[in-house]
Design brief:
Cytidine Deaminase, domain 2, 10 strands, 8-stranded mixed beta sheet, 2 domains
Length: 306
């Protein structure tokens, strides 16, 4: 069945939801009621079968809409898509979002779509954006919804090739792998912000607990050696097995110095890796922005409305 006649399965990444929520949160501080509606584009990938038909959509990020003469600026959105494709070649515009407190998620209303089948992103040559299909998803988010457990107040709808909203809801799910990565990054960020001393204190607590148990074993062995207690062969075999598995360490100061050196090196490698990855992505973005700015004849700040 063609992509135009069948609603796609849809997966949305937590990064996209976080970006949309951040957009709406910032708009909450403005005075105008009209400006408290967050509108923008959904960026992701179309998943196809062997025949080339779209079977599902992955929403991976969002692009905030910027207004020009009272409507979303198509050229600026196309430029942002082109910049995104500099780092993520397979990303394209897959739909739009509408988020606000009190948004109608049962009978959604659209807006003038900036990019459509008749007005694609690739039409703007300076943007260097590409697409393989027209936008097919419309996400509506009622940020004030207090639904049942698992209901985020989000509904997905299909868009046909003319940009008309279909009333049938599109089933969707949250990308679990991305959610786990975000949670892991939060944990790692929290851990990185803690001092080395705090970490060493936790390690010391573990060693102290181990030492207290070792004292009990030593006391038992001393009593057996002094014939105060009868030797139990099974206990002695267990102690021997435990000792063979425990690493030999030097003095207390030597252990802490070695641990601190190892921790410092691991932190250094992590920071260098993050800086390298971030610098490479920033360099690609700067090159793409410079190329787009030079072609349009505007400075970067003016072009993006800053």
């Amino acid at each position: 069945m063609s992509a135009d006649k069948k609603a796609h399965q849809c997966t949305i990444g937590p990064s996209a939801l976080i970006s949309i929520s951040d957009h709406l949160t910032r708009l909450e501080f403005t005075q105008s009621e009209k400006e408290k509606i967050a509108l923008g584009g959904l960026v992701g990938e179309y998943i196809r079968d062997k025949q080339g038909n779209i079977t599902s959509v992955k929403i991976l990020d969002s692009i905030e809409g910027t207004y020009e003469n009272g409507q979303l600026d198509a050229e600026k959105m196309a430029t942002m898509i082109g910049l995104t494709q500099t780092n993520y070649k397979t990303y394209e515009l897959v739909g739009y979002y509408n988020a606000s407190k009190g948004a109608d998620i049962k009978n959604p209303k659209g807006f003038k779509w900036p990019l459509t089948k008749e007005n694609p992103a690739s039409k703007f040559e300076d943007a260097e954006a590409k697409e393989t299909h027209f936008p097919t998803i419309y996400l509506v988010w009622d940020a004030a919804a207090k639904g049942t457990k698992g209901d985020l107040g989000i509904r997905m709808f299909s868009l046909d090739k003319k940009g008309q909203i279909k009333k049938n809801k599109v089933p969707y799910g949250i990308e679990q792998r991305d959610a786990e990565v975000i949670a892991l990054n939060d944990v790692l960020t929290l851990e990185s912000n803690r001092t080395s001393l705090t970490k060493l204190q936790r390690y010391r607590e573990g060693v102290s607990n181990l030492m207290s148990r070792a004292d009990i074993l030593l006391e038992y062995l001393t009593d057996v050696a002094e014939s105060k207690k009868t030797a139990d062969s099974s206990v002695l075999r267990g102690i021997n097995s435990l000792l063979s598995r425990l690493p030999l360490t030097g003095g207390k100061a030597e252990f802490e110095d070695a641990l601190l050196d190892e921790y410092a090196m691991s932190q250094l490698y992590a920071y260098l890796g993050a800086m390298t990855e971030g610098s490479a992505m920033l360099a690609n973005n700067n090159i793409a922005v410079s190329k787009a700015s030079s072609r349009s004849g505007y400075s970067g700040n003016r072009m993006f409305g800053f």
